[in-house]
């Protein structure tokens, strides 16, 4: 076995792209000048880490990713502070979760600390791409694809890891806006024992049909229920979900089919530090409906990297509408949003040590 080369090679682009102006960038459509790439080969391990100019890659049409979807991804952001620093939010958690997802998909693990170093170098090089308009950020998309040209069903012997950077506008340019969510009682996103806890491609395309139906009926997204009984609440498209009922905050427990959100984890830690009662447990949709009928549902909000907090103004379940807090943002939702975004943009003291500064 050869000694793998783990020295980072940097090839700078000689043709720098113009940067978008202001807050007018549709999510995920503009990319920076460079990407990070690294390759894996059985017997050799992960090797040849590189930062190279952004551009198309070449793959064999028989590459296993195209046929069996053996792939995982992550999503995090870099934020520009008012005093000119660039901060990452809990990036070590993203690489930890990437390895959890990879484990489920039989993809070899990466060295989490080493990856954080490579990511920091990439963001450092692309620092001028971190937008400065309030609410904007640089979205970071690490992902791994299986690349072996082979139609036999089974784990690939070769992989490619890449990191893309994409400047993104504010999720809520006009301030927090409560959304309308359809409670999905036909389609299933994930079941216990499946891949729901992994950030892997197929989970998302499997939700498109339900999301399209929900959108046609005027909803922003769907709230998934458990795949067996369609009874217990799981999560929204790419957000975890929280309910404030009669002064207590509850969120579905991680049961194997729910994505372990880093925003979710941060919200729980924050609420505990504020002495707000919070619990992770099984929550049935009937329980929510009953609490709604009893006038006890005070706030509902989704959590995820994209929006941080997305207040839910209305839930639609089997033709029954639950109007939450008169379609207005709840006090606690707003406070959580202000605190987490405050830490991310350096306006609020980072007492949890959540941020990592890029030099
Ligand atoms: C990424 C994701 C989330 C949110 O996770 P964060 O780490 O908070 O961004 C929730 N649910 C699904 C299905 C996701 O893909």
**Which ligands appear in the coordinates?**
pyridoxal-5'-phosphate
Order of helices and strands: EEEHEEEHHEEEHHEEEEHEHEEEHE
Number of domains: 2
Q: Tell me, briefly, the overall form.
A: globular
CATH homology superfamily name of the largest domain: D-amino Acid Aminotransferase, subunit A, domain 2
Number of helices: 8
- Average pLDDT confidence is 95
* Relative helix content: 10-25%
The helix-and-strand class reads alpha+beta
CATH class of the largest domain: Alpha Beta
Main beta-sheet annotation: 9 strands, mixed
Low-confidence stretches: none
| Head-to-tail CA distance between termini | 36 Å
Provide the fold topology.
Layout: E1 9-10, E2 34-41, E3 45-53, H1 64-68, E4 71-73, E5 76-80, E6 86-89, H2 91-104, H3 112-125, E7 137-146, E8 158-168, E9 179-183, H4 201-205, H5 208-216, E10 221-225, E11 233-236, E12 240-245, E13 248-252, H6 262-273, E14 278-281, H7 285-293, E15 297-304, E16 308-317, E17 320-323, H8 331-344, E18 355-358
Parallel strand pairs: 1-3, 9-10, 9-16, 13-14
Antiparallel strand pairs: 2-3, 2-8, 4-7, 5-6, 5-7, 6-18, 7-8, 10-11, 12-13, 12-15, 15-16, 16-17
Helix pairs in contact: 2-3
The structure holds pyridoxal-5'-phosphate (PLP).
Residues 75, 199, 235, 238-240, 259, 261-264, 303-305 line the site of pyridoxal-5'-phosphate (PLP).
């Amino acid at each position: 076995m050869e000694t793998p080369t783990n020295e980072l090679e940097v090839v700078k682009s000689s043709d720098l792209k113009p940067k978008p102006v202001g807050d007018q960038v549709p999510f995920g459509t503009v990319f920076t000048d460079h990407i990070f790439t690294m390759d894996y080969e059985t017997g050799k391990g992960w090797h040849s880490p590189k930062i190279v100019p952004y551009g198309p890659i070449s793959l064999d049409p028989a590459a296993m990713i195209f046929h069996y979807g053996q792939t995982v991804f992550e999503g995090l952001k870099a934020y520009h502070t008012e005093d000119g620093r660039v901060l990452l939010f809990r990036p070590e958690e993203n690489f930890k979760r990437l390895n959890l997802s990879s484990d489920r998909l039989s993809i070899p693990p990466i060295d989490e600390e080493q990856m954080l170093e490579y990511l920091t170098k990439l963001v450092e090089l692309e620092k001028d791409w971190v937008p400065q308009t309030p609410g904007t950020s640089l979205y970071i998309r690490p992902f791994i694809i299986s690349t072996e040209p082979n139609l036999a069903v089974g784990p690939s012997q070769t992989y490619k890891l890449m990191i893309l950077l994409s400047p993104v506008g504010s999720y809520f340019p006009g301030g927090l806006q409560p959304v309308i969510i359809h409670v999905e009682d036909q389609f299933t996103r994930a079941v216990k024992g499946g891949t729901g806890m992994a950030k892997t491609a197929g989970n998302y395309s499997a939700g498109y049909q339900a999301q399209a139906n929900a959108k046609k009926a005027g909803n922003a997204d769907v709230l998934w229920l458990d795949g067996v009984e369609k009874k217990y609440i799981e999560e929204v498209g790419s957000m975890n979900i929280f309910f404030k009922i009669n002064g207590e905050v509850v969120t579905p427990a991680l049961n194997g089919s729910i994505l372990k959100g880093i925003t979710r984890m941060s919200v729980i830690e924050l609420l505990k530090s504020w002495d707000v009662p919070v619990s992770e447990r099984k929550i049935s949709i009937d329980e929510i409906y009953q609490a709604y009928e009893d006038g006890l549902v005070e706030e509902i909000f989704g959590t995820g990297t994209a929006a941080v907090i997305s207040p839910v103004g209305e839930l639609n379940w089997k033709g029954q509408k639950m109007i939450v807090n008169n379609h207005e943002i709840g006090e606690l939702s707003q406070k959580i949003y202000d605190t987490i975004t405050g830490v991310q943009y350096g306006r609020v003291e980072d007492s949890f040590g959540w941020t990592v500064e890029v030099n």
